[in-house]
Amino acid sequence: MVTYAYRCTACGSVDLTFPMGQAPTRTDCPRCGAGAERRWTSPGLTRLHRGLRDAFAREERSRDEPEVVSRPHGGRRM
Ligand SMILES: [Zn+2]
Questions:
Q1: For residue 20, how far is its CA from the centre of ligand 1 (angstroms)?
Q2: Which of 1, 26, 29, 46 could form a disulfide with 36 if both were Cys (CB 3.0 to 4.6 A apart)?
Q3: What is the per-residue pLDDT across 34-47, written as a single tens digit (0 to 9) for each?
């Protein structure tokens, strides 16, 4: 088993254990049940400037929101 770092939308950083190579990109937070997204803790990322990391975090957060903005046409017949 390997410990992976996840980021819960509600309570922040969470460490979860999965068999090697089987960590899902997203899972449910064991503490609060909210969605937790896997943090890619590569050496390169940890050396990013804080502002840059915030920007990435913001982008991740926006990815969490379901996007139902536009749908392809086709459900409707003219
Ligand atoms: Zn949580």
A1: 23
A2: 29
A3: 999 999 865 555 55
What's the 68 CA to ligand 1 centre distance in angstroms? 25
d(CA 59, CA 56): 5
Alpha carbon of 75 to ligand 1 centroid (Å): 38
C-alpha 15 – ligand 1 centre gap (Å): 11
